[in-house]
Amino acid sequence: MKNNEKKIEEELNSNESRSLNFIETIIEEDIKNNKHGGRIHTRFPPEPNGYLHIGHAKSICLNFGLAEKYNGKCNLRFDDTNPTKEEEEYVNSIIEDVKWLGFDWEDRLFYASDYFDQIYEWAVKLISEGKAYVDDQPSDVISEQRRTPTRPGIESPFRNRSIEENMDLFEKMKKGEFPDGYRVLRAKIDMSSPNMHMRDPVIYRILHATHHRTGDKWCIYPMYDFTHGQSDYLEGITHSICTLEFEIHRPLYDWFLDNLIETEYRPRQYEFARLNLSYTVMSKRKLLELVEEGYVNSWDDPRMPTISGMRRRGYTPESIRNFADRVGVAKRDNVIDVGLLEFSVREHLNKITPRIFAVLNPLKIIITNYPEDQVEELELEVNPEDTSMGTRKVPFSREIYIEQDDFMQDPPKKFFRLGPGREVRLKGAYIIKCEDYKKDENGNVVELYCTYDPETKSGSGSQRKVKGTLHWVSVAHAIDAEVRLYDRLFIKEEPDVVDKEGENFKSNINTDSLKIITGKIEPGVLGVKAFDKFQFQRLGYFCVDPDSTNEKLVFNRTVTLRDSWAKVSKKK
Ligand code: ATP
Ligand code: MG
What we know:
The protein is α/β, with parallel strands linked by helices. 27% of the residues lie in helices and 23% in strands. The strands form seven sheets. Strands 12-25-26-27-23-24-13 form a seven-stranded mixed sheet, with helices on one face. Adenosine-5'-triphosphate binds next to helix 3 and strand 8.
């Protein structure tokens, strides 16, 4: 992992200003040629059937980012054509997530369902021109007749119904005279096209379901493919950006517009490669399974690759936007190292987080020559990367905690932390020396006895140097907090690759992805609010969980520090 990070950092440094991506190149060309009068209008079109994930974040940053860069507009549009899987909860979470990422659609929040009347009219237009027909066959027969790309499909026996009969049946479908799936409306295009999407696709289906916006007004719903391109058209979208799997749908979208629209203006679709991340699954269907089957606690569980999960984990919008920018826009599918995302998160948190001391695996030290009732308020910097953040007061006393693994009974030479007879600096305080220690009946070290050198107080100008510096928390002043330590949710770089038949991505779940411990934290932490972020020095970045209360603080570990030990000891 460390090497990986180094590689990422080197690559980033050598590549600071990036060249135009292929969509930017197209846009700049279009602006030059005054296409659409130089207007740039994009949209982010989620289906409200799940929470947004980091892949969507990529698409959001791309669409809104292009609009920002080229002085254009970007709409937020819900492609809500499937009432059975869509819910208000998802709409609300999507709105919150896009806002949180820092983007603004102004007054352009749209729903494909707003266009249902127009789309219905368009279906009627196709029928009236002999370009659509009602098919009475069940869906499995229709699929079978489509056959394969290399064999021409079989025409439906209903394909040549009269316009009048089609009109009448479609009207009856709309009026609710038939049960679900009883008939469909199909576009009459080309049953032998090598593009399967052109083989008389279904454009309307019967579904007696309540829609989250239109209620029970409709019992027929347009298919996604019969809605998406037309919605772009209605909104005046100039560049319809979507992921590669829709490339093959493009001729169909164009066919619809060519057969429905008189004007010259057309939205033009461009496809880019979807973002894939190592150690991560991204499909909403799979994420829903993780939630419903209890592998995680909720959509916003900090282990989820959802935007709300990342927010809860402590990621910042800036770090996600930086990540999206660094990933770039590819034309071919690839897998991005999740380390690049973590790198972007660290990079931003390093700049903005206050430092505090927290001990996660406490080992008590008694400083035997320190006065029993004395407490010193030491002044430490809040953030060495940003001195404008000022200083903080940290109490120091005779009994303190350090991390268990900062002491070894029989340390090797290169171990610059504590061992019998060895010295370290307590950060911001004094140099101490380990004189003795106590073990319990199982041989575990339970207490250290140290002496301190009063001449070595930090900031006093003392010249004495030691190699190691440790963080610490005063026992009498420590605040207990629940600390949730997260690890990757999957043990495999590509969770979808399984070893045995019958397994699926869930076989690759890391059963140790959450460890809950009680940490000891410096008292300055009292009064924190949900989503406040800190660097626990030498340990990593942590974020206050919404479960946290004044009585019981709860922290999530956002991400560990890279090589934290080297950093702290170098500083002193
Ligand atoms: P999933 O397949 O992950 O469940 P989806 O494609 O069904 O997602 P939509 O709500 O249809 O989700 O997606 C909204 C927009 O986000 C679309 O334009 C889609 O192309 C884009 N998008 C979805 N997943 C990714 C991804 N992994 N990388 C980039 N863009 C994505
Ligand atoms: Mg989709």
